[in-house]
Specification:
Chain lengths: 290, 271
Amino acid sequence: MVDVLLSDAEKTFIIHGIQDNLRDDGRGCEDYRHMEIETDVVSSTSGSAKVRLANTEILVGVKAELGEPSSGKPDKGRLEFFVDCSANATPEFEGRGGEDLALEISNMLTRAYDCPKCLDLGKLCVIKGQQCWVLYVDILLLECGGNLFDAASVAVKAALYNTCIPTVTVSQDEGHVDIELSDDPFDVQHLDVTSAPCIVTLSKIGHSHVVDASQKEEACCLARLMMGVTEKGTVTALKKEGSGSLDPSSVEEMMETGKRVGQALNKSLMEVLCLEEQKGKKKEKTGFLR
Amino acid sequence: MPTDSRRIAGPESSTNPYSFCTEKPRHDLLKNGKRQDGRKENNLRPIFLKAGVVSQARGSAYIEQNETKVICAVYGPREVVRKEDFSMKGLLTCEFKFAIFSCRERRQHQQDIEEKDYSVQLLEALEPAVCLDKFPKAQMNIYVTVLQNDGSALAAAITCASVAMADSGIEMYDLVAGCAVRVAGKNLLMDPCNQEEYKPEDETGLTNSGSVTVGLMPSLQQVSAISSKGEIEFELVKQAVAKCVDVCTQLYPVLQQALVKSVSERQNEEG
Protein backbone atom coordinates (compact mmCIF):
# COMPACT_ATOMS: atom_id res chain seq x y z
CA MET A 1 0.00 0.00 0.00
CA VAL A 2 1.01 3.54 -0.52
CA ASP A 3 1.82 4.99 2.85
CA VAL A 4 1.42 8.44 4.25
CA LEU A 5 3.45 9.68 7.17
CA LEU A 6 1.35 9.87 10.29
CA SER A 7 2.48 10.60 13.84
CA ASP A 8 1.36 8.48 16.78
CA ALA A 9 -0.88 11.27 18.04
CA GLU A 10 -2.63 11.54 14.70
CA LYS A 11 -3.14 7.78 14.64
CA THR A 12 -4.63 7.82 18.12
CA PHE A 13 -6.98 10.60 17.04
CA ILE A 14 -8.25 8.53 14.12
CA ILE A 15 -8.56 5.30 16.14
CA HIS A 16 -10.49 6.99 18.97
CA GLY A 17 -12.77 8.70 16.49
CA ILE A 18 -13.64 5.40 14.83
CA GLN A 19 -14.47 3.89 18.22
CA ASP A 20 -17.23 6.51 18.45
CA ASN A 21 -18.40 5.87 14.86
CA LEU A 22 -16.94 9.16 13.70
CA ARG A 23 -14.28 9.36 11.05
CA ASP A 24 -11.93 12.21 10.33
CA ASP A 25 -13.89 13.20 7.23
CA GLY A 26 -17.25 13.04 9.00
CA ARG A 27 -18.41 9.69 7.66
CA GLY A 28 -19.87 6.80 9.62
CA CYS A 29 -18.07 3.44 9.71
CA GLU A 30 -20.09 1.89 6.89
CA ASP A 31 -20.15 4.85 4.52
CA TYR A 32 -18.33 5.14 1.24
CA ARG A 33 -16.83 8.38 0.09
CA HIS A 34 -18.30 10.20 -2.89
CA MET A 35 -17.90 8.13 -6.00
CA GLU A 36 -18.09 9.24 -9.61
CA ILE A 37 -18.37 6.83 -12.49
CA GLU A 38 -18.03 7.59 -16.15
CA THR A 39 -18.16 4.93 -18.83
CA ASP A 40 -17.02 4.97 -22.44
CA VAL A 41 -14.13 7.33 -21.84
CA VAL A 42 -11.48 5.84 -24.14
CA SER A 43 -12.67 5.36 -27.71
CA SER A 44 -9.90 2.96 -28.71
CA THR A 45 -11.18 0.25 -26.36
CA SER A 46 -14.10 -2.16 -26.52
CA GLY A 47 -15.28 -0.81 -23.21
CA SER A 48 -13.88 1.54 -20.63
CA ALA A 49 -14.74 3.21 -17.38
CA LYS A 50 -13.28 5.73 -15.04
CA VAL A 51 -13.98 5.72 -11.34
CA ARG A 52 -13.14 8.49 -8.96
CA LEU A 53 -13.51 7.67 -5.28
CA ALA A 54 -12.58 10.88 -3.44
CA ASN A 55 -8.86 11.05 -4.26
CA THR A 56 -8.55 7.63 -5.83
CA GLU A 57 -8.81 7.62 -9.57
CA ILE A 58 -8.82 4.49 -11.65
CA LEU A 59 -9.17 4.04 -15.38
CA VAL A 60 -10.07 0.67 -16.84
CA GLY A 61 -9.95 -0.28 -20.48
CA VAL A 62 -11.27 -3.58 -21.85
CA LYS A 63 -10.00 -4.83 -25.17
CA ALA A 64 -11.64 -7.81 -26.81
CA GLU A 65 -9.41 -9.89 -29.05
CA LEU A 66 -9.76 -13.26 -30.69
CA GLY A 67 -7.49 -15.90 -29.23
CA GLU A 68 -7.19 -19.50 -28.20
CA PRO A 69 -9.12 -20.74 -25.18
CA SER A 70 -7.17 -22.22 -22.30
CA SER A 71 -6.77 -26.00 -22.37
CA GLY A 72 -8.82 -26.55 -19.21
CA LYS A 73 -11.82 -24.62 -20.51
CA PRO A 74 -12.13 -25.20 -24.28
CA ASP A 75 -15.70 -23.89 -24.46
CA LYS A 76 -15.16 -20.66 -22.54
CA GLY A 77 -13.75 -17.25 -23.31
CA ARG A 78 -10.93 -15.83 -21.26
CA LEU A 79 -10.72 -12.90 -18.91
CA GLU A 80 -7.29 -11.47 -18.13
CA PHE A 81 -6.56 -8.76 -15.63
CA PHE A 82 -3.55 -6.55 -15.75
CA VAL A 83 -2.89 -3.72 -13.33
CA ASP A 84 -0.55 -0.88 -14.12
CA CYS A 85 0.54 1.39 -11.29
CA SER A 86 1.39 4.65 -12.96
CA ALA A 87 4.29 6.53 -11.42
CA ASN A 88 2.12 9.63 -11.77
CA ALA A 89 0.22 8.45 -8.73
CA THR A 90 3.26 8.19 -6.49
CA PRO A 91 7.01 8.09 -7.19
CA GLU A 92 7.15 4.79 -5.27
CA PHE A 93 5.63 3.13 -8.32
CA GLU A 94 8.55 4.07 -10.53
CA GLY A 95 10.15 1.21 -12.41
CA ARG A 96 9.16 -2.04 -10.76
CA GLY A 97 8.02 -0.34 -7.56
CA GLY A 98 4.33 -0.95 -8.04
CA GLU A 99 4.67 -4.53 -9.17
CA ASP A 100 3.73 -6.19 -5.89
CA LEU A 101 0.64 -4.07 -5.43
CA ALA A 102 -0.33 -4.56 -9.05
CA LEU A 103 -0.02 -8.31 -8.73
CA GLU A 104 -2.07 -8.32 -5.55
CA ILE A 105 -4.90 -6.37 -7.14
CA SER A 106 -4.95 -8.48 -10.30
CA ASN A 107 -4.82 -11.73 -8.29
CA MET A 108 -7.71 -10.63 -6.13
CA LEU A 109 -9.78 -9.68 -9.17
CA THR A 110 -8.92 -12.89 -10.97
CA ARG A 111 -10.01 -14.87 -7.96
CA ALA A 112 -13.21 -12.88 -7.51
CA TYR A 113 -14.19 -13.42 -11.15
CA ASP A 114 -13.05 -17.04 -11.32
CA CYS A 115 -16.39 -18.73 -10.81
CA PRO A 116 -18.73 -19.89 -13.56
CA LYS A 117 -21.71 -17.84 -12.48
CA CYS A 118 -20.10 -14.41 -12.16
CA LEU A 119 -19.75 -13.77 -15.84
CA ASP A 120 -21.03 -16.00 -18.61
CA LEU A 121 -17.78 -16.75 -20.39
CA GLY A 122 -19.49 -19.46 -22.42
CA LYS A 123 -20.97 -16.70 -24.58
CA LEU A 124 -17.47 -15.63 -25.55
CA CYS A 125 -16.67 -18.95 -27.19
CA VAL A 126 -16.46 -18.74 -30.98
CA ILE A 127 -15.21 -22.17 -32.07
CA LYS A 128 -14.94 -24.70 -29.29
CA GLY A 129 -11.34 -25.48 -28.46
CA GLN A 130 -9.97 -23.18 -31.14
CA GLN A 131 -11.15 -19.62 -31.02
CA CYS A 132 -12.69 -17.49 -28.32
CA TRP A 133 -12.87 -13.89 -27.26
CA VAL A 134 -10.18 -12.89 -24.83
CA LEU A 135 -11.07 -9.89 -22.74
CA TYR A 136 -7.98 -8.03 -21.64
CA VAL A 137 -8.96 -5.89 -18.69
CA ASP A 138 -6.27 -3.28 -18.12
CA ILE A 139 -6.47 -1.28 -14.94
CA LEU A 140 -4.54 1.94 -14.63
CA LEU A 141 -4.08 3.63 -11.28
CA LEU A 142 -3.98 7.35 -11.87
CA GLU A 143 -4.20 8.60 -8.33
CA CYS A 144 -4.02 6.73 -5.03
CA GLY A 145 -6.19 7.99 -2.22
CA GLY A 146 -6.88 4.77 -0.37
CA ASN A 147 -9.12 1.79 -0.98
CA LEU A 148 -7.71 0.84 -4.37
CA PHE A 149 -9.21 -2.66 -4.42
CA ASP A 150 -12.83 -1.55 -4.09
CA ALA A 151 -12.44 1.25 -6.61
CA ALA A 152 -10.70 -1.08 -9.06
CA SER A 153 -13.44 -3.69 -8.81
CA VAL A 154 -16.17 -1.09 -9.34
CA ALA A 155 -14.30 0.29 -12.35
CA VAL A 156 -13.85 -3.21 -13.78
CA LYS A 157 -17.52 -4.00 -13.44
CA ALA A 158 -18.47 -0.70 -15.05
CA ALA A 159 -16.03 -1.24 -17.91
CA LEU A 160 -17.32 -4.77 -18.52
CA TYR A 161 -20.87 -3.39 -18.56
CA ASN A 162 -19.76 -0.93 -21.19
CA THR A 163 -17.94 -3.54 -23.29
CA CYS A 164 -19.23 -4.17 -26.81
CA ILE A 165 -18.12 -7.37 -28.47
CA PRO A 166 -18.52 -7.42 -32.26
CA THR A 167 -20.81 -10.15 -33.57
CA VAL A 168 -19.01 -12.86 -35.47
CA THR A 169 -20.48 -15.57 -37.65
CA VAL A 170 -18.80 -18.90 -38.13
CA SER A 171 -19.33 -20.65 -41.43
CA GLN A 172 -18.11 -24.12 -42.17
CA ASP A 173 -17.64 -25.78 -45.53
CA GLU A 174 -15.70 -28.98 -46.22
CA GLY A 175 -13.81 -28.87 -42.98
CA HIS A 176 -12.79 -25.29 -43.63
CA VAL A 177 -13.88 -22.90 -40.91
CA ASP A 178 -14.33 -19.21 -41.58
CA ILE A 179 -14.91 -16.48 -39.05
CA GLU A 180 -16.64 -13.41 -40.38
CA LEU A 181 -16.84 -10.17 -38.50
CA SER A 182 -20.00 -8.13 -38.86
CA ASP A 183 -19.62 -4.97 -40.96
CA ASP A 184 -22.09 -3.01 -38.91
CA PRO A 185 -20.29 -1.28 -36.01
CA PHE A 186 -23.54 -1.29 -34.03
CA ASP A 187 -24.05 -5.02 -34.43
CA VAL A 188 -22.51 -5.83 -31.07
CA GLN A 189 -23.13 -7.97 -28.02
CA HIS A 190 -23.12 -6.82 -24.46
CA LEU A 191 -22.03 -8.74 -21.40
CA ASP A 192 -24.37 -9.44 -18.55
CA VAL A 193 -22.60 -8.19 -15.45
CA THR A 194 -25.50 -8.29 -13.00
CA SER A 195 -23.95 -11.11 -11.00
CA ALA A 196 -20.36 -9.89 -11.26
CA PRO A 197 -18.77 -9.27 -7.87
CA CYS A 198 -17.55 -6.08 -6.28
CA ILE A 199 -14.72 -6.16 -3.80
CA VAL A 200 -15.38 -4.71 -0.36
CA THR A 201 -12.39 -4.05 1.87
CA LEU A 202 -12.98 -3.93 5.60
CA SER A 203 -10.19 -2.41 7.63
CA LYS A 204 -9.85 -3.28 11.28
CA ILE A 205 -8.97 -0.13 13.16
CA GLY A 206 -8.83 -0.27 16.92
CA HIS A 207 -11.73 -2.42 18.04
CA SER A 208 -14.06 -1.65 15.17
CA HIS A 209 -13.89 -1.91 11.43
CA VAL A 210 -14.58 0.53 8.63
CA VAL A 211 -15.30 0.29 4.92
CA ASP A 212 -13.61 2.43 2.30
CA ALA A 213 -10.62 3.47 4.41
CA SER A 214 -8.87 6.65 3.35
CA GLN A 215 -5.11 6.73 3.03
CA LYS A 216 -4.73 8.03 6.58
CA GLU A 217 -6.96 5.31 7.95
CA GLU A 218 -5.07 2.67 6.00
CA ALA A 219 -1.92 3.78 7.80
CA CYS A 220 -3.63 3.04 11.16
CA CYS A 221 -4.85 -0.36 10.12
CA LEU A 222 -2.96 -3.61 10.64
CA ALA A 223 -5.36 -6.15 9.18
CA ARG A 224 -7.85 -5.96 6.37
CA LEU A 225 -10.42 -8.40 5.11
CA MET A 226 -11.33 -8.27 1.45
CA MET A 227 -14.44 -9.86 0.10
CA GLY A 228 -15.79 -10.32 -3.38
CA VAL A 229 -19.53 -9.92 -2.95
CA THR A 230 -22.19 -10.44 -5.61
CA GLU A 231 -25.61 -8.84 -5.80
CA LYS A 232 -27.19 -11.92 -4.24
CA GLY A 233 -24.83 -11.71 -1.29
CA THR A 234 -22.71 -14.72 -2.16
CA VAL A 235 -19.00 -14.55 -1.50
CA THR A 236 -16.71 -15.19 -4.45
CA ALA A 237 -13.38 -14.41 -2.86
CA LEU A 238 -12.05 -13.81 0.59
CA LYS A 239 -8.65 -12.62 1.64
CA LYS A 240 -6.97 -11.32 4.74
CA GLU A 241 -4.34 -8.74 4.08
CA GLY A 242 -1.85 -6.91 6.27
CA SER A 243 0.50 -7.87 9.05
CA GLY A 244 -2.06 -8.16 11.85
CA SER A 245 -4.39 -10.94 12.88
CA LEU A 246 -8.11 -11.03 13.58
CA ASP A 247 -10.33 -12.54 16.21
CA PRO A 248 -12.67 -15.25 14.81
CA SER A 249 -15.70 -13.35 16.11
CA SER A 250 -14.58 -10.10 14.51
CA VAL A 251 -13.99 -11.95 11.23
CA GLU A 252 -17.64 -12.92 11.38
CA GLU A 253 -18.76 -9.37 12.15
CA MET A 254 -16.63 -7.99 9.34
CA MET A 255 -18.05 -10.51 6.91
CA GLU A 256 -21.59 -9.52 7.90
CA THR A 257 -20.80 -5.87 7.26
CA GLY A 258 -19.05 -6.74 4.01
CA LYS A 259 -22.03 -8.66 2.73
CA ARG A 260 -24.45 -5.86 3.60
CA VAL A 261 -22.29 -3.11 2.14
CA GLY A 262 -21.37 -5.19 -0.90
CA GLN A 263 -24.97 -5.87 -1.83
CA ALA A 264 -25.83 -2.19 -1.50
CA LEU A 265 -22.78 -1.22 -3.54
CA ASN A 266 -23.66 -3.65 -6.32
CA LYS A 267 -27.23 -2.44 -6.40
CA SER A 268 -26.45 1.26 -6.62
CA LEU A 269 -23.68 0.61 -9.14
CA MET A 270 -26.08 -1.18 -11.47
CA GLU A 271 -28.61 1.66 -11.10
CA VAL A 272 -26.01 4.27 -11.98
CA LEU A 273 -24.78 2.25 -14.94
CA CYS A 274 -28.30 1.82 -16.32
CA LEU A 275 -28.95 5.52 -15.92
CA GLU A 276 -25.73 6.34 -17.69
CA GLU A 277 -26.55 4.06 -20.59
CA GLN A 278 -29.96 5.66 -21.04
CA LYS A 279 -28.39 9.09 -21.37
CA GLY A 280 -26.30 7.76 -24.24
CA LYS A 281 -24.40 10.38 -26.18
CA LYS A 282 -26.11 13.24 -24.39
CA LYS A 283 -24.19 12.69 -21.19
CA GLU A 284 -21.78 15.24 -19.93
CA LYS A 285 -18.10 14.36 -20.18
CA THR A 286 -16.01 15.21 -17.18
CA GLY A 287 -12.53 14.00 -18.11
CA PHE A 288 -9.62 12.99 -15.93
CA LEU A 289 -8.04 14.06 -12.67
CA ARG A 290 -10.04 17.05 -11.70
CA MET B 1 6.19 -15.65 -20.18
CA PRO B 2 9.91 -15.01 -19.64
CA THR B 3 12.07 -18.09 -20.01
CA ASP B 4 15.39 -18.95 -18.45
CA SER B 5 17.96 -19.08 -21.24
CA ARG B 6 20.38 -21.18 -19.21
CA ARG B 7 18.00 -24.06 -18.97
CA ILE B 8 17.20 -26.50 -21.67
CA ALA B 9 13.62 -25.86 -22.48
CA GLY B 10 11.36 -28.68 -23.47
CA PRO B 11 10.06 -28.89 -26.99
CA GLU B 12 8.12 -25.78 -27.90
CA SER B 13 4.85 -27.57 -28.19
CA SER B 14 4.20 -30.59 -26.08
CA THR B 15 0.96 -31.69 -24.56
CA ASN B 16 0.28 -33.56 -21.42
CA PRO B 17 -1.42 -36.85 -22.35
CA TYR B 18 -3.93 -36.33 -19.54
CA SER B 19 -5.38 -33.33 -21.33
CA PHE B 20 -6.78 -35.67 -24.00
CA CYS B 21 -8.70 -37.90 -21.68
CA THR B 22 -12.16 -36.64 -20.86
CA GLU B 23 -12.56 -36.76 -17.15
CA LYS B 24 -16.05 -37.35 -16.00
CA PRO B 25 -17.34 -34.55 -13.81
CA ARG B 26 -17.18 -35.38 -10.16
CA HIS B 27 -20.72 -34.99 -9.01
CA ASP B 28 -20.41 -37.58 -6.30
CA LEU B 29 -17.90 -36.12 -3.88
CA LEU B 30 -19.88 -37.73 -1.12
CA LYS B 31 -21.49 -41.14 -1.44
CA ASN B 32 -23.48 -42.58 1.47
CA GLY B 33 -21.67 -40.18 3.78
CA LYS B 34 -18.27 -41.36 2.56
CA ARG B 35 -15.76 -39.55 0.40
CA GLN B 36 -13.84 -41.07 -2.48
CA ASP B 37 -10.93 -42.06 -0.27
CA GLY B 38 -13.22 -43.51 2.39
CA ARG B 39 -13.04 -40.62 4.80
CA LYS B 40 -16.06 -39.03 6.45
CA GLU B 41 -16.88 -35.36 5.87
CA ASN B 42 -15.04 -34.15 8.95
CA ASN B 43 -12.09 -36.49 8.84
CA LEU B 44 -8.64 -35.19 8.09
CA ARG B 45 -5.92 -37.18 6.46
CA PRO B 46 -3.28 -38.52 8.83
CA ILE B 47 -0.55 -35.96 9.43
CA PHE B 48 3.14 -36.68 9.72
CA LEU B 49 5.06 -33.65 10.94
CA LYS B 50 8.75 -33.50 11.73
CA ALA B 51 10.87 -30.50 12.66
CA GLY B 52 14.59 -30.15 12.02
CA VAL B 53 15.04 -31.96 8.73
CA VAL B 54 17.42 -29.66 6.83
CA SER B 55 20.71 -29.52 8.71
CA GLN B 56 21.98 -26.38 6.93
CA ALA B 57 18.95 -24.30 7.73
CA ARG B 58 18.34 -22.42 10.94
CA GLY B 59 15.02 -24.19 11.24
CA SER B 60 13.07 -26.57 9.06
CA ALA B 61 10.07 -28.84 8.97
CA TYR B 62 8.46 -31.48 6.82
CA ILE B 63 4.77 -32.27 6.65
CA GLU B 64 3.02 -35.14 4.98
CA GLN B 65 -0.72 -35.57 4.64
CA ASN B 66 -1.00 -38.74 2.63
CA GLU B 67 0.16 -37.64 -0.80
CA THR B 68 0.62 -33.96 -0.01
CA LYS B 69 4.23 -33.45 0.96
CA VAL B 70 5.72 -30.10 1.84
CA ILE B 71 9.17 -29.16 3.06
CA CYS B 72 10.10 -25.80 4.52
CA ALA B 73 13.37 -24.19 5.60
CA VAL B 74 13.98 -20.95 7.48
CA TYR B 75 17.18 -18.92 7.20
CA GLY B 76 18.16 -15.87 9.23
CA PRO B 77 17.96 -13.56 11.03
CA ARG B 78 20.65 -11.91 8.95
CA GLU B 79 21.47 -8.42 7.81
CA VAL B 80 19.30 -6.90 5.11
CA VAL B 81 21.08 -6.81 1.77
CA ARG B 82 19.44 -3.82 0.21
CA LYS B 83 19.68 -0.44 1.87
CA GLU B 84 16.07 0.37 0.98
CA ASP B 85 14.84 -2.59 3.00
CA PHE B 86 16.12 -1.08 6.23
CA SER B 87 13.44 -0.96 8.89
CA MET B 88 13.16 -1.01 12.65
CA LYS B 89 11.02 -4.09 12.33
CA GLY B 90 12.44 -7.33 11.06
CA LEU B 91 11.76 -8.18 7.45
CA LEU B 92 10.12 -11.49 6.70
CA THR B 93 10.17 -12.92 3.20
CA CYS B 94 8.46 -15.98 1.87
CA GLU B 95 8.98 -18.05 -1.22
CA PHE B 96 6.41 -20.65 -2.07
CA LYS B 97 7.26 -23.05 -4.85
CA PHE B 98 5.67 -26.13 -6.30
CA ALA B 99 8.39 -28.57 -7.33
CA ILE B 100 8.31 -28.83 -11.13
CA PHE B 101 7.02 -32.40 -10.99
CA SER B 102 4.75 -31.98 -7.98
CA CYS B 103 1.44 -31.58 -9.78
CA ARG B 104 -0.27 -33.57 -12.45
CA GLU B 105 0.81 -31.07 -15.03
CA ARG B 106 4.43 -30.03 -15.22
CA ARG B 107 5.15 -26.71 -13.57
CA GLN B 108 7.55 -24.08 -14.79
CA HIS B 109 10.86 -23.45 -13.10
CA GLN B 110 10.06 -19.82 -12.45
CA GLN B 111 7.40 -18.78 -9.97
CA ASP B 112 4.04 -18.42 -11.66
CA ILE B 113 1.16 -16.22 -10.57
CA GLU B 114 -0.43 -18.85 -8.36
CA GLU B 115 2.83 -19.46 -6.52
CA LYS B 116 3.38 -15.74 -6.04
CA ASP B 117 -0.14 -15.43 -4.67
CA TYR B 118 0.50 -18.28 -2.24
CA SER B 119 3.81 -16.69 -1.19
CA VAL B 120 1.99 -13.51 -0.21
CA GLN B 121 -0.72 -15.41 1.63
CA LEU B 122 1.82 -17.48 3.50
CA LEU B 123 3.75 -14.37 4.46
CA GLU B 124 0.63 -12.69 5.75
CA ALA B 125 -0.28 -15.81 7.70
CA LEU B 126 3.07 -15.89 9.49
CA GLU B 127 3.80 -12.19 9.97
CA PRO B 128 1.42 -11.75 12.91
CA ALA B 129 2.95 -14.74 14.69
CA VAL B 130 6.59 -13.66 14.62
CA CYS B 131 7.99 -11.07 17.05
CA LEU B 132 9.42 -8.91 14.29
CA ASP B 133 10.01 -6.02 16.71
CA LYS B 134 12.87 -7.97 18.25
CA PHE B 135 14.81 -8.13 15.01
CA PRO B 136 15.49 -4.60 13.78
CA LYS B 137 17.58 -4.32 10.61
CA ALA B 138 17.34 -8.06 10.07
CA GLN B 139 15.65 -10.28 7.57
CA MET B 140 14.35 -13.80 7.87
CA ASN B 141 13.63 -15.94 4.85
CA ILE B 142 11.17 -18.75 4.59
CA TYR B 143 11.39 -21.16 1.68
CA VAL B 144 8.59 -23.59 1.08
CA THR B 145 8.72 -26.34 -1.53
CA VAL B 146 5.79 -28.56 -2.28
CA LEU B 147 7.27 -31.93 -3.20
CA GLN B 148 3.97 -33.46 -4.09
CA ASN B 149 0.61 -31.80 -4.30
CA ASP B 150 -2.49 -33.75 -3.48
CA GLY B 151 -4.68 -30.87 -2.37
CA SER B 152 -4.64 -28.43 0.56
CA ALA B 153 -1.08 -27.43 -0.25
CA LEU B 154 -1.42 -23.92 1.14
CA ALA B 155 -2.85 -25.12 4.45
CA ALA B 156 -0.06 -27.68 4.80
CA ALA B 157 2.50 -25.02 3.92
CA ILE B 158 1.20 -22.67 6.62
CA THR B 159 1.46 -25.38 9.29
CA CYS B 160 4.86 -26.51 8.05
CA ALA B 161 6.32 -23.00 7.84
CA SER B 162 5.21 -22.06 11.34
CA VAL B 163 6.80 -25.19 12.80
CA ALA B 164 10.00 -24.49 10.85
CA MET B 165 9.98 -20.93 12.16
CA ALA B 166 9.56 -22.14 15.76
CA ASP B 167 12.25 -24.77 15.21
CA SER B 168 14.67 -22.01 14.20
CA GLY B 169 14.34 -20.46 17.66
CA ILE B 170 13.11 -17.13 16.32
CA GLU B 171 10.81 -15.65 18.92
CA MET B 172 7.14 -16.05 18.14
CA TYR B 173 3.87 -15.14 19.78
CA ASP B 174 2.24 -18.36 18.69
CA LEU B 175 2.32 -21.12 16.12
CA VAL B 176 0.04 -21.02 13.10
CA ALA B 177 -2.03 -24.01 12.07
CA GLY B 178 -3.54 -24.15 8.62
CA CYS B 179 -6.66 -25.90 7.46
CA ALA B 180 -8.64 -26.08 4.23
CA VAL B 181 -12.23 -26.98 3.55
CA ARG B 182 -14.04 -27.68 0.30
CA VAL B 183 -17.57 -26.39 0.03
CA ALA B 184 -19.72 -28.45 -2.32
CA GLY B 185 -23.43 -27.83 -2.13
CA LYS B 186 -24.34 -28.03 1.53
CA ASN B 187 -21.40 -30.30 2.30
CA LEU B 188 -18.22 -29.16 3.95
CA LEU B 189 -15.37 -31.53 3.21
CA MET B 190 -12.39 -30.96 5.47
CA ASP B 191 -8.84 -31.23 4.17
CA PRO B 192 -9.72 -31.87 0.50
CA CYS B 193 -7.42 -34.03 -1.61
CA ASN B 194 -6.59 -33.16 -5.20
CA GLN B 195 -9.70 -34.75 -6.68
CA GLU B 196 -11.92 -32.90 -4.25
CA GLU B 197 -10.27 -29.50 -4.62
CA TYR B 198 -12.23 -26.69 -6.19
CA LYS B 199 -11.39 -26.20 -9.83
CA PRO B 200 -13.33 -23.45 -11.58
CA GLU B 201 -13.05 -25.21 -14.94
CA ASP B 202 -15.24 -28.18 -14.11
CA GLU B 203 -18.57 -26.66 -13.47
CA THR B 204 -20.46 -28.99 -11.20
CA GLY B 205 -23.68 -27.06 -11.54
CA LEU B 206 -23.90 -26.52 -7.82
CA THR B 207 -24.77 -23.11 -6.44
CA ASN B 208 -22.18 -23.43 -3.74
CA SER B 209 -18.85 -24.55 -4.91
CA GLY B 210 -15.56 -23.31 -3.60
CA SER B 211 -12.90 -23.71 -1.01
CA VAL B 212 -11.79 -21.84 2.09
CA THR B 213 -8.36 -21.88 3.72
CA VAL B 214 -7.80 -20.54 7.23
CA GLY B 215 -4.64 -20.01 9.26
CA LEU B 216 -5.16 -19.77 13.00
CA MET B 217 -2.94 -18.97 15.94
CA PRO B 218 -4.46 -21.53 18.32
CA SER B 219 -3.44 -20.31 21.77
CA LEU B 220 -4.17 -16.66 20.98
CA GLN B 221 -7.32 -17.67 19.08
CA GLN B 222 -6.54 -15.20 16.32
CA VAL B 223 -7.09 -15.74 12.62
CA SER B 224 -3.93 -14.84 10.74
CA ALA B 225 -4.90 -15.94 7.24
CA ILE B 226 -8.13 -16.43 5.44
CA SER B 227 -8.76 -16.97 1.77
CA SER B 228 -11.46 -18.39 -0.40
CA LYS B 229 -12.11 -19.35 -4.00
CA GLY B 230 -15.34 -19.97 -5.83
CA GLU B 231 -18.85 -18.70 -5.24
CA ILE B 232 -20.25 -19.62 -1.84
CA GLU B 233 -23.37 -18.54 0.02
CA PHE B 234 -22.69 -16.24 2.91
CA GLU B 235 -23.98 -18.54 5.67
CA LEU B 236 -21.84 -21.39 4.38
CA VAL B 237 -18.70 -19.24 4.34
CA LYS B 238 -19.34 -18.46 7.99
CA GLN B 239 -19.80 -22.14 8.77
CA ALA B 240 -16.69 -23.09 6.81
CA VAL B 241 -14.53 -20.54 8.60
CA ALA B 242 -15.86 -21.64 12.00
CA LYS B 243 -15.17 -25.27 11.19
CA CYS B 244 -11.63 -24.49 10.04
CA VAL B 245 -10.98 -22.56 13.25
CA ASP B 246 -12.17 -25.58 15.19
CA VAL B 247 -9.96 -28.02 13.32
CA CYS B 248 -6.91 -25.74 13.58
CA THR B 249 -7.32 -25.70 17.35
CA GLN B 250 -7.38 -29.48 17.32
CA LEU B 251 -4.19 -29.56 15.26
CA TYR B 252 -2.26 -27.57 17.86
CA PRO B 253 -1.03 -30.56 19.91
CA VAL B 254 0.37 -32.15 16.74
CA LEU B 255 2.50 -29.08 16.11
CA GLN B 256 3.64 -28.94 19.72
CA GLN B 257 4.55 -32.61 19.74
CA ALA B 258 6.69 -32.23 16.64
CA LEU B 259 8.61 -29.38 18.24
CA VAL B 260 9.11 -31.16 21.55
CA LYS B 261 10.39 -34.20 19.71
CA SER B 262 12.89 -32.20 17.68
CA VAL B 263 14.19 -30.42 20.79
CA SER B 264 14.67 -33.66 22.72
CA GLU B 265 16.39 -35.25 19.73
CA ARG B 266 18.75 -32.31 19.56
CA GLN B 267 19.48 -32.62 23.27
CA ASN B 268 20.28 -36.30 22.91
CA GLU B 269 22.73 -35.54 20.13
CA GLU B 270 24.51 -32.95 22.22
CA GLY B 271 24.45 -34.82 25.51
